[in-house]
From TrEMBL:
UniProt xrefs under Gene3D superfamilies: Homeodomain-like (1.10.10.60)
Family matches, as InterPro entries: AraC_XylS_family_regulators, DUF6597, HTH_AraC
Source species taxonomy: Bacteria, Pseudomonadati, Bacteroidota, Flavobacteriia, Flavobacteriales
Protein name: HTH araC/xylS-type domain-containing protein
GO molecular function, one term: DNA-binding transcription factor activity
Length: 267
């Protein structure tokens, strides 16, 4: 398994980064930790599946990755590669203008979500599959040309997201009310519609993945990280761990996940 990261941006902050995954040793299996960032990817290989909450989804072609609230299993049984882009948390709403909660915990085919936008993206991925630098630039140019759905609510949620990321999830939902002009109920409804998760769940997710990033990069011992990220005690950390990872820390740390280590460096 080879994971390559491309630190490329568009002019309006929709792209977080781009990536490619090349899988030549099969069968390949890994869990995928939710990142807090949605994505769009082209699945070139056959026999790739996602299993979430005991539901199996076959993925192929141009695919969206909605927000996930827990790990899912990724399985590949045929040699192939994927190329995609991690997006800003509000990017899917800005591009499609739909209730993003409808994409949560899903990998829908882009063609079923918006045929017009599919017809713009799909030829780029097909024509430049073997020329990634050109593919990346074509994707950036297309994203820069899209008409976006942006209003006051989107701007407010952008402010909230930026603050959550700046604080690495070490805050409360009530802290967001101090910087956005919304009641808590309105914030909950609009945040979930634009991001796909509630603000409380998203805050907990960002705190957890920032901690896991530092752990996977071997920067700080796990016990030190637990207190650095304001977990009240070890049991509170374990509660979040089981929530997002669907297994205990003891079970997880026994295993090796090279894909997680590869992509967590660039979260």
């Amino acid at each position: 398994m080879e994971y390559t990261f491309f630190n490329k941006k568009d002019s309006r902050g929709l792209l977080n980064n781009l990536f490619s995954i090349n899988i030549q040793t099969i069968p390949f299996q890994s869990i995928i930790i939710p990142t807090g960032f949605p994505a769009i990817a082209y699945i070139y290989g056959d026999k790739q599946t996602i299993i979430y909450n005991n539901k199996t989804t076959n993925i192929k072609g141009l695919t969206l990755l909605g927000q996930y609230d827990a790990t899912y299993n990724f399985s590949v049984n045929f040699k192939g590669h994927n190329i995609g882009a991690n997006l800003h948390p509000t990017a899917l709403y800005k591009i499609f203008g739909i209730d993003i909660a409808s994409l949560t915990n899903k990998h829908p085919q882009l063609e079923l979500i918006n045929k017009k936008i599919f017809d713009q993206f799909n030829p780029i991925f097909l024509d430049y599959e073997n020329d990634i630098p050109v593919l990346i630039q074509k994707i950036i140019n297309l994203i820069d040309s899209l008409d976006l759905h942006i209003d006051k609510d989107v701007n407010r949620i952008d402010i909230a997201i930026d603050y959550i990321l700046e604080k690495e999830g070490m805050l409360q939902v009530t802290d967001l009310l101090k910087i956005v002009s919304l009641s808590q109920k309105s914030l909950e409804v609009k945040f979930k519609k634009i991001i796909g998760l509630t603000p409380g769940k998203y805050i907990r997710l960002i705190r957890f993945i920032k901690l896991m990033r530092k752990y996977e990069n071997k920067k700080i011992a796990i016990n030190d990280l637990i207190y650095m990220y304001n977990y009240y005690d070890h049991s509170h950390f374990i509660k979040d761990f089981k929530l997002f990872m669907s297994e205990s820390p003891k079970e997880y740390f026994k295993k090796e996940y090279p894909l997680i280590k590869a992509y967590s460096k660039n979260l």
